[in-house]
């Protein structure tokens, strides 16, 4: 297989996901068993690896959660043209840039939290042409789970220049009581809120949630349990518009990293 080719992603579109973990070997063992991934060393040193699905880069894993003082979690990254400009927009809107922008490899990266506390990253630099949400082993779907999806859409829209009408930016539309984000005619993310008038549920914190395709949801759940993971939501049928439908289950890896497996409908 030819080496993945770099290119510039659509500004504001998802461009990568990384698991921030505190045990690289254990994470590789778990996701290798559940997802069938293999791994190669990353370009950022011995604490990083790249997960591969049939030889294609799927996600990164970084043994940095303990050093950074953050919870083990999957983090979604969005492509930007100028990391400093995006960092300024985030701060101007009362949100937080926690790390960076820092020079990383051939680009610059940063970690931030939106006004509701959902953590996300952004990346200035080349991305992998083969990595596209919903295609060829990349995550099937990204979903922001928050309290007020419309407030979140305004924040991210201003930060990443969504819905500006420019052909090189993401589009936004309201569908099935959620905000859908589209890039080049393809749905890449969803912002979903709860009951704004209700009291906040202390067990739920706003987060960007990652969905991965598997051939058999029930088998993935069984394998995850055998590998030391836990089930956060049992397998069930789901439907989101005409884009994502079928079986899914939400899992936690042995260190608490939360993700969802969804049926590969091909």
UniProtKB/TrEMBL annotation:
Gene Ontology terms, MF aspect: dioxygenase activity
Keyword Oxidoreductase in annotation: yes
InterPro entries: Anthracycline_SecMetBiosynth, Glyas_Bleomycin-R_OHBP_Dase, Glyoxalase_6, VOC_core
Domain of life: Bacteria
All copies of domain VOC, residue ranges: 13-125, 138-264
Listed Pfam families: Glyoxalase_6 (PF18029)
Keywords assigned: Dioxygenase, Oxidoreductase
Keyword Protein biosynthesis: no
The protein, known as: Glyoxalase/bleomycin resistance protein/dioxygenase
């Amino acid at each position: 297989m030819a080496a993945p080719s770099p290119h510039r992603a659509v500004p504001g579109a998802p461009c990568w996901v990384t698991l921030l973990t505190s045990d690289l070997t254990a994470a590789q063992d778990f996701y290798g068993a559940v997802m069938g991934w293999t791994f190669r060393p990353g370009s950022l040193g011995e604490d990083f690896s790249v997960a591969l699905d049939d030889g294609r880069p799927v996600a990164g894993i970084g043994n940095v959660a303990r050093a950074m003082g953050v919870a083990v979690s999957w983090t979604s990254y969005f492509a930007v043209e100028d990391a400093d400009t995006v960092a300024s927009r985030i701060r101007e809107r009362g949100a937080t840039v926690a790390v960076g922008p820092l020079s990383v490899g051939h680009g610059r990266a940063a970690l931030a939290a939106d006004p509701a506390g959902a953590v996300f990253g952004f990346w200035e630099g080349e991305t992998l042409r083969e990595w596209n949400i919903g295609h060829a082993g990349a995550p099937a779907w990204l979903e922001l789970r928050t309290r007020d999806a419309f407030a979140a859409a305004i924040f991210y829209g201003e930060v990443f220049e969504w819905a500006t009408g420019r052909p090189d930016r993401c589009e936004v539309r309201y569908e099935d009581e959620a905000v859908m984000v589209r890039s080049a005619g393809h749905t890449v993310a969803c912002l979903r809120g709860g009951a704004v008038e209700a009291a906040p549920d202390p067990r739920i914190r706003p987060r960007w949630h990652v969905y991965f395709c598997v051939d058999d949801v029930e088998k993935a759940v069984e394998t995850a349990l055998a590998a030391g993971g836990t089930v956060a939501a049992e397998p069930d049928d789901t439907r989101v518009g005409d884009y994502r439908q079928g079986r899914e289950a939400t899992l936690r890896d042995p260190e608490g990293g939360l993700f969802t497996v969804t049926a590969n409908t091909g």
